[in-house]
Design a protein that fits this description.
alpha+beta, 14-stranded antiparallel β-sheet, two-stranded antiparallel ribbon, 16 strands, about 40% strand, globular
Amino acid sequence: MRKLCPNIDKDDGLETVLEVPIPEEMFTGMGNNVALRWQNMMTWMKAQTSDKWSQPLIAARINELRFLLYLVGSPLIPLQVQVGHSVHKPVKDCSIQASTAKYIVQQYIAATGGPAALNAVNSMCVTGQVKMTASEFHQGDDSGANLKSNDEMGGFVLWQKDPDLWCLELVVSGCKVICGSNGRLSWRHSSNQQTPASTGTPRPLRRFLQGLDPRSTANLFLDATCIGEKIINGEDCFILKLETSPAIREAQSGPNFEIIHHTIWGYFSQRSGLLIQFEDSRLLRMRTKDDEDVFWETSAESVMDDYRYVDNVNIAHGGKTSVTVFRYGEASANHRRQMTEKWRIEEVDFNVWGLSVDHFLPPANLQIGK
């Protein structure tokens, strides 16, 4: 991935460090030669806050990219995951399904490095690249709709610090999304967005649970139940299921929307103990200006692979997420949209020296009650 941009204005000038590295494939698509590519790169970087984004055609393009980055690139999980706590929970006073799930989680902890290695991690920095594809909205019963042929490429940098501080910077095809949590609220904003950042209660980033943060994953599924078995990519897996409680759904609903349900599944290999697939499904009811209900049902399925050890912790370095969105209600026909994201982790560093709470501050207009 490209991390540095040369100083085009001065031959002897220092190189610029890109805030978010970009994939080599994305860079080579910016021109026929290196000089033109860097020139286009500079133009692209300066355009992040350009007034041209208000033009209808460009605005529609940015809204499309923002939809992808919000829904596929940076979704949140409604459950509070105690990432700062050690991975331990008693098995007594549990049902057979719940105690079985805790045993499976203990096997997963062992497969990803063991309690000592996982609890030794207090912060991390991750860089990676993504490739996204999406279809248009089509009739819900039209299963033959194809995804667009063009891919949207980009990269991301993800920071995390105990107990629940994290920040993600994601850049795809000229659109940048920054989201994070400072322990009191979670927030998300696009660099091309004129409206204020959206906020909510502190929640973990779904990307952590895609084989990237074993301790968060273990703590999440300690409250799950084992509901059966399934073969995933030739692997016999146990299925763990977790339902979001009514109290949590109510707390995270808003004046114009209601979370009706949010269910999470984890598929753990019986052979290796590792998390092979992570799924979640959410149903949201929104109230329109005409006082009508519109329902959005989002289902996401992530398959992880390429597990490798980094400082004694077993991390998934690649995978693919498939997202299906159903929209129905408002006296209109059902519509469906499909999106995919392929990702690859380039670097993972644990226990980042000097990383403090100041690195996780929200935008200035949200910094209240500091």
